[in-house]
Design goal:
The chain is mainly α. The protein contains 20 helices and two strands. It has a two-stranded antiparallel ribbon with strand order 1-2. Keywords: Cell membrane, Copper, Electron transport, Heme, Iron, Membrane, Metal-binding, Respiratory chain, Translocase, Transmembrane, Transmembrane helix, Transport.
Amino acid sequence: MSTYAHKKGFGATIWDYLTTVDHKKIGILYLMAGGFFFLVGGLEALFIRVQLAVPNNDFVSAGLYNEILTMHGTTMIFLAAMPLIFAFMNAAVPLQIGARDVAFPFLNSLGFWLFFFGGVFLNCSWFLGGAPDAGWTSYASLTMEAHTHGVDFYILGLQISGIGTLIGGINFLVTIVNMRAPGMTYMRMPLFTWSSFVTSALILFAFPALTVGLFLLMFDRLFGANFFDVAAGGNTIIWEHLFWIFGHPEVYILILPAFGIFSEIFATFSRKRLFGYSSMVFATVLIGFLGFMVWAHHMFTVGMGPIANAIFAVATMAIAVPTGIKIFNWLFTMWGGNIKFTTPMLYAVAFIPSFVAGGVTGIMNAVAAADYQYHDSYFVVAHFHYVIVGGVVLALLAGTHYYWPKMFGTLLNETLGKITFWLFLIGFHLTFFIQHFLGLMGMPRRVFTYLPNQGWETGNLISSIGAFFMGIAVIILLINVVMTQVKNVRVGNDPWGDGRSLEWAIPSPPPFYNFKQLPLVRGLDPFWIEKMEGKTEMTPAEPLGDIHMPNPSFLPVTISFGLFVAAFGALYHVDGKDWALPVLFVGMGITLISMLLRSVKDDHGFHIHKEDFENEDKGGRA
């Protein structure tokens, strides 16, 4: 935390974070909350692997296994990977484009608190009658049969969280379009900003499909509508379409920012401009565009027919082309570079073969006829974990090490970082590589146990051992974080020494206004251009003047909390509880009154006057 936070005392610091609208603090909130849910999802994964380590295991019951499996997938995708991506978007994107904040700081805070309360609501299901148990995709044929409230927690929790994500996506779109510094044209934006831009567009178009699907499912579950009830004329396959129209772009919502993080890391630690910048930009846009044309490859076995299957198979294979362009450009960036094998660079180098393996098995799954064999087997589990863990999680770990000094002003220990890297990488491949063969040997996914003498014992044992390697790696990372923050050794603007983009031109952590004067961007890698001319900071694009900044607000917390309360009322209203309807109205009342207060309160923010800069603590309120 900043020196400013230490001066104010612990209670004041908590209040500071509860009311902040500063993108850098919101990035830290996303990092902490997403990191917490990542630990929860990781524990659920370890329970799964303990249960499957040996045949006929009774570590958990079949019903509890379904709950753990469902919550592992849901938590990792919606409550860990997504917010951790938003953590780095908040921490880096406004700095990379030379902005003082995001376009809508209040909405930025609201987006975080909606995600947080949605995630807490979902996890309350563990203590209130059982977690959702219909798989992370919650296919309607299973959810309509569910007799506990677990699925209702899933529906309402993801609705609240999803609104927060949608708000965040729109906010970053507007920020990148409208708030770039003078000279920062689209084709001078860093690759991480570009990938965040395309990701935000994907969120804008993909999340409404999930929202609609959950809305219809909520009406089926809570009010007896019949959208998905086959016996009453509904259609369960429509849920699959709605879910995967969201669900496949979601993969690219996660992986494109990962590509962006790695693009920054390859250029920084190869001490070279990123090879083929414009082709990388167009590949990013093309991946985003094609991502909406492939959703039904998850549904080759539902009976759409050969023509639909063929169309979606071809579209799926087409997406490999822009991805391949990116892989070769990263390799060519390293080619002839003066490479420094820091912890982030190790993750970046390991990412290439790991992700290529996930991509190759994706092409195998894209062959519709072959997919009839792979479908619902552990081969598919191995494939998507190679994409998500071998792509997204490696990027999140790399990004944590890379952007930590910019976010907190301290540098994580490199030795511990490398130990974490090797343990995690070995554990990852041990866990998931063998699962390809388990799948090809006939092991179906989502089974909670299996009989001996089917040839699956060794593979499952190796897989479970690998999972514990990853668990140990994460524990070492946590030790690294605590040690680094306790020692609190401060670093300068450009701790890696090779920063190329604008965020490395200002102090670490940045002052709350980011830039005293907006920088003048004279080309791609603007800070590198200045450094090559012997300068240590950016050329300003404006004279020193007053800066307008937004006021902090507690209303995002109350708006989100109101929906959290109202969701309990909606959930228990079905049971005929007398208190449910009043709770629903109280919750909605809290939200609506908070929104009303926001609309009537005259909040024009505040000004920092140019003469105040001399007295401002440079590390303050970061």
